[in-house]
């Protein structure tokens, strides 16, 4: 390594050290930064100068430095210049958001669209239009979008950016990363992973949890000590294909009785509409693929009741009582396009419709069964229900928790609590933008050099 | 921090650095150690002197140091002094082993005993006798046992050493660590975790895998990039209670249709003996708890065939053909006491017994279903079947792989290969001893100070 290269590497490391210290403290003087990092005050001043010039930090007012009695200027992360783009392609919506370096969400747009009908290039073109408009708006606000991450509902090869199989989009081996055209780097990652990171950075703030992303597919992201668990190939967290009942309804993944067939958005809507006239108008699958709840020859009709009977009290804790937990429901503006199908279910539930109630009971029971397998395997500290399960939480939360307790209570000192996500359908796009922010914080030098 | 404390901390760090470099290289000169660690030759010589005095490394012969043309003495890890004790309490056997610092297994003993009938203190006393005899033998060989780890078949609170619940032993909240009496520290940990580490350090050498520990209970240990994944509370990997069929036979964990009820040793033996006269003599559970294979009202009788039909060719790849893979079977001496029940099944299989074959088919199908959920959730690079599944591998391996392929093939580019463990019932005790060795390698100063 030459002298110059060595100097560059050290400067890069120290810039990250100082920026990280500012981020950790919120606001801090140069003197305190020198103490925190072990660098000399001269070095800190030089580095802070570079970070200010790059728009990553700003000075704010003057304060008394209590310990020494000398006046000092505080430094904090700047939300005025560097920004990140979060993008999401999901089965029935597109979402984009812009988050600044201070982690404030500055812009967000969603568009309801059935992406199952469209070839990947068309979906990407539409997403590009939506993103361009938002990036233009960000530029008008003085922001510079430095990178993006795109969330997709399926396993992604993180090296090549190829989506191997997104069965609910009908995509196979789509080289997504190479089809994107942005004036800044955009990586592609699995939606459920990013939703879990969204929850970590913009949601509950819990450090250890399993986040369940309920959409037409069902993904999960496991966060352990503040870090995402990806597995050997980055394909971990495919909760939607965990077995609920091995001889159950066939699934698009090739298996049978996967969780998605009981608790995915399509399965839920189909079950809720079973006895109504709107079914034919909105169903997108051949009827033979999705037997109505309770009528399937493969699913024992008594299953939800069996579990309810096992956990004393569960049978009496119906949706009516559970609705008292409505304070935990996200506000109406969080019912984004992804959940419009679910808002129909919600209105039926509020009207006391029996089909809707039975559909939720079946979905909640199946979620409880699959999550009991997940808890046995990965031992999370909490379970966060997001996506469509957030607005449905008052109707399903207790039932999921009861099924978990019935299956896990005797083996474990404590069954992980089941809580609701406050982010809803935005979680993945926020997690996507948050990943770019993390990257800037970890290597600010890469940004300052460009 | 005082000057002396600072010096001690730096010395401890450097001792670990040098010992780690010796371990990584196998054998290495002092000069090469100085280059590898960035320490001065004087410092390296002093540290190596301390490590030799402590019996952690030895000098071996003289070699030409090619690069400089000066003669150098090579240093390597010593297998002559420091040793670790691995212990295991399982449902039907006790195991102990002594492993030296060079990772050679020096002593091993197992004892067949039904621990379900005995109170914890009696089990611990018997284990203590077995361990004392082995430690005495180790001392006669000039070894010094510096610590131990005890494997138990259930989740363990690693801070307190309390076994919360080991349902197959009938133990609840047993303060195991505080009941042990050894002249060196002994920690307690979950058997399946340690078996996975045994496989990592003494088995295949794969860096990413899910190790399945088949005993009366079924545990799993996930190794990701050479490290054990423990989950938020250290309770990850309870594969035996992953749901195979949610309305299946009741399980001692409080759930129903857990994997253990299809593929655990008791379930397998009961199914294999279903139509023979030996059943009553050896069954340890009330007959009502374990319905015979295919006769349960809860388990759809056609399930194994459904999956076999899904994967073309599977139905024709019966045990007769699979027996061609007998080169993959561990040698007879690896059929330790835990597997004596299984050796009866093996002899029946070799005789072409239909009940034994059907019992294995059912167990393999259930393993495939539960493992497909596990692969979806944790994305391992390979699956290693250990414990009783090692000798059974020629009869079950293909069927497990076929079920996995049928359920996962369409979603993933590659389904993780299913391979056999070469360690058998010894894996956990070896992993336990290996953990002590890891600890000595990470902090040799702690040992040199005592």
Query: Biggest interface: chains and residue counts?
Result: A-B, 55 and 55 residues
Task: Indicate the radius of gyration of chain A in whole angstroms.
Answer: 24 Å
Distance between the termini of chain A: 22 Å
CATH topology value of the largest domain in chain A: Nucleotidyltransferase, domain 5
The overall number of domains of chain A is: 3
Based on helices, strands and strand pairing, what is the structural class of chain A? alpha/beta
Q: Can you name the CATH architecture of the largest domain in chain A? A: 2-Layer Sandwich
Strand line-up across the major sheet of chain A: 6-5-4-7-11
As a percent range, the share of strand residues of chain A is 15-25%
Helix content of chain A: 40-55%
Low-confidence segments of chain A, given as residue ranges, are 276-339
What would you call the quaternary organization? homodimer
**Would you count the extended β strands of chain A for me?**
16
Give average pLDDT of chain A, whole number: 82
- Total number of helical segments of chain A? 16
Morphology call of chain A: globular
The CATH homologous superfamily name of the largest domain in chain A equals ATPase, nucleotide binding domain
